[in-house]
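Supplementary Methods S3. Complex input for the pantoate-bound model.
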Amino acid sequence: MEILTSPGAMRAWSREQRVLGKKIALVPTMGFFHQGHLSLMRMAARHGDAVVVSLFVNPIQFGPNEDLDRYPRSFTKDCELAGQEGVAVVFAPEAADMYPAGFQTTVSVEQLSRSLCGADRPGHFNGVTTVVSKLFHLVQPDMAVFGQKDFQQLSIIRRMVRDLDMGIEILAHPIVREPDGLAMSSRNVYLNEQQRRSALSLSGGIALARSLYTDGLLDTAVLKEKVREHILSYPGTAVDYISFVDRSSLEPVDRADQETLLALAVSIDGRVRLIDNGLLVGTG
Ligand code: PAF
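Predicted complex, serialized as structure tokens:
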């Protein structure tokens, strides 16, 4: 496995692969790999001939009071794990190379970026779409894999690719969960034992909404209250949002149906912000 840090070297590698007729599959990440990331790599390997994993903690998608400085990092271990998955290249650029002095261009998917996490984290999705566009230009992948845990991010990337005719296939990987239901996330490492228990309020809230929906409760205002009560019954939890939205438009819906997605963001002890989501008819 090669580790490339220079954008120019990355571009040159990709050009060679394309001349050889290889299909490149990209997995964009911020590192600190867990089973969820490894599953994305496996999916990429099933679809492409050569897998590139980008590993870059993107400063422009963090707000001023967010966790950029303490975001968990484990570069050596990550490279080992990626190597074991048969990844061809880990692309780990420096921030100064991605955003040299004078950098001033932003890619923005206006409407889809405003709601849900976009409302709580202004500028976050512009940071994501800008870095992902840059990665797409540098790596020139045929396809890229994103996790459904960041459902809004996935919708925004799909929109960007369509709107800007990027010609890259976007593959979605289902949420990977711990045996007790907690969605895997690099940020789970911040949780102490008590907070880890409270983190189950998210998957529990989704399970509750599903079971109420299956029993015929379709009014999302009522469903929302039930989910809120459930989440707040765990110590230290505060709800950032509970939203029942249409899975395609991400617009809120009053009456749930099989296209309805429940999206949640919950802060625990005001320190760790977790997100989760699920279709009301789904299981993942
Ligand atoms: O999902 C993430 O880890 C990041 O938002 C991404 C897509 C790698 C962009 O920095």
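The longest strand covers residues 237-246. The two ends are 32 Å apart (CA to CA).
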